[in-house]
Amino acid sequence: MSKFKKKKDGGVPAVNTAALPDIVFMLLFFFMVATVMRQNTLMIENNLPFADQVEKLDKKDLVMYIYAGKPSQNYKQFGTEAKIQLNDKFADVNEIAAFISAERASKREELVPFLTTALKVDKDANMGLIGDIKQELRKVNALKINYTTKKGSVFGRD
């Protein structure tokens, strides 16, 4: 008579890794699409004024933003007077030239003539501060200026 042999346990079957690269690329693509790039943290109150004739800027990567207004609730220790914000810090008017130069240096040389300076100014900001900003922009030959507004009636009723 023949002997019965026990079937040897083959162990755990191998994991199929053929689909692993597809899964990795799907996750990579998902996070590339779903991620929002961080903008500047606003340290000022920025209630933009209204305008009835508004145009959108085509290339937002060629825009340098200068914010002006009173410090927000979290930054009241800096005072109640209108301040200028360049990127993520408060600045004086005389620091605008260095800011513009740094922004120009960070762009490719052929794009520099197309750079636009956008002023995001609070509707209650002092016009003297805006005039000082414009004077500094003239000194560094940043003559393409955009005033950022909200679309609506000039009188703010819409």
UniProtKB/TrEMBL annotation:
Q: Which domain of life is it from?
A: Bacteria
Localization: Cell membrane
Q: Which residues cross the membrane?
A: 12-37
Describe its membrane topology: Single-pass membrane protein; Single-pass type II membrane protein
Keywords associated with the record? Cell membrane, Membrane, Protein transport, Transmembrane, Transmembrane helix, Transport
Q: Which GO terms describe its biological process?
A: protein transport
Q: Which InterPro entries match?
A: ExbD
Gene Ontology CC terms, in alphabetical order: plasma membrane
Regions annotated as coiled coil: none
State the family it belongs to. Answer: Belongs to the ExbD/TolR family.
Q: What is this protein called?
A: Biopolymer transporter ExbD
